[in-house]
# Entry
Amino acid sequence: MTLRHEVVIVGAGLAGLRTAIELAENCDTAVLSKVHPLRSHSVAAQGGVNAALSESDSWQDHAFDTVKGSDYLADQDVVEILAKLAPMAVIENERWGTAFSRTEDGRIAQRPFGGAMYPRTCYAADRTGHNLLHTTFEQALRLGVKFYNEWFATSIVRGPDRVRGLTALNIATGEVHGISAKAVVIATGGFGRIYGNSTNALINTGDGCALALRAGVGLKDMEFVQFHPTTLFGSNILITEGARGEGGLLFNRDGERFMSRYAPEKMELAPRDIVARAIRREIDEGRGFEGGYVHLDLRHLGRDRILERLPGIREICMEFAGVDPIEEPIPVVPGQHYSMGGIDCNKNGETSLPGLYAVGEAACMSLHGANRLGGNSLVETLVFGRVVGKAVLDYIKRTGDPADQDMEEEAFRVRHELQAMLMSGTDYLPAAIREELNRTMDTNVGVFRSRESLEKALTRVRDLRQQFKKIDLGRSDKRYNYAMVRALELQNMLDLAEPIIMGALAREESRGAHWRVDYPRRDDSRFLKHTVVTLARDGLKLHYADVHLGMFEVKERTY
# Structure
């Protein structure tokens, strides 16, 4: 049975929900999510959301910090939109009911974050994403958005000149359906779980990016993978940048506040790529604690401030490491955190396939360039959810209904493919392939990279893709078959690992989060460009696209 909506949004995090809110009053809008919307990864965002609200700050300063933080790879026209619309996005959510932390005179409180000239990050203690997601979900419900919860998108359906809809697996029944739509918006978040040491939820497997790649749409800047400096040693749970924003200090085992060696002016509030490399280098050169970590010390902040500003961090440390930050320093280590690359699209979310849009972390509008500043992710979802929603509405007003025949044919093909997966090989377990993929990426495509490590990773990933063709799923029940869901996720991650490594191999320079030990300098003459990888009939192809420069001159980046 083919279902029909004017617009289907895949992903129910903040980006998807904000896009749906923009559309819901004017067209038939559905949101499809493989989990309940309130379990989307946006709920895990801790530190805050950037907006130039104070009298001393300005959208121009926000834009400059973002462009400099990106190592000048961000498209400056996209950054300008973000910085100009950020205050309105925050106020909008406040009026919808988001409970922000407040100053004594009642204003929205703002804390310092890395790479910013001013305290610009609005926050709700250390549960900002949680508060924003609940508010936004309530608004989507109020507006009557149709939700397909626990549905897994399996393919984009395209005609000769435009998108026709998508196919999706209803996890509860095991049935595959075609969903006809004039426009499809990908808002599935990042692909951090390609790595093992990640702050990402287990659901962040890059499903939307893989769907777009297989539909013929390019992926941009995939080699720029952000490693958060401070994740909890042993579990890689995020320890928010807000902890350093509140005054947290980093020490090695010699008791040295080592950031003075790497960013003497900004110290712990240097951008994430710089702090992550500093910590990794301290550990690699033997100045970390036994086991491989450094200390993040909050004790001097005092009990009251930690309980008021960082209650969730304290709880995480006590539950998962047996450490009370009021009494002891926190053991931290860098871990994968964010995907700067994603689906190649313009500032309105439009891809090369008419009717297919992307927004949020799944998209690469080129907002973050080579390194995202903390606090810019949440505001990106709110600002560009609205912008993309308006662009989609304009598109569907001038677009006819798609033909159903394509939907039925594609749904039949996907049913056959899933059945074949259930009935096929017995040689390899998906869990073992996933574990090896994680290990390969952690070891060879991490904070520091080289030609040797990247070539090793590429060979291994290609081997794993061959193994995936002979996986054994075990059980064959159609209903709630999570072995099937995990296998589909693994297929998506394997499809994305190769573009990440290809981009990293080809980029013979160091810029932002991409650091080549064999090419330790930024090379603007060759690589002030975006990497784009597309899937052709004979495999993946790589080319480069120009960066949109503008009001800020490209300079050396120092802190």
About this structure: The CA atoms of residues 191 and 206 lie 4 Å apart. The mean pLDDT is 96. The radius of gyration is 22 Å. The first strand starts at residue 2 and ends at 4.
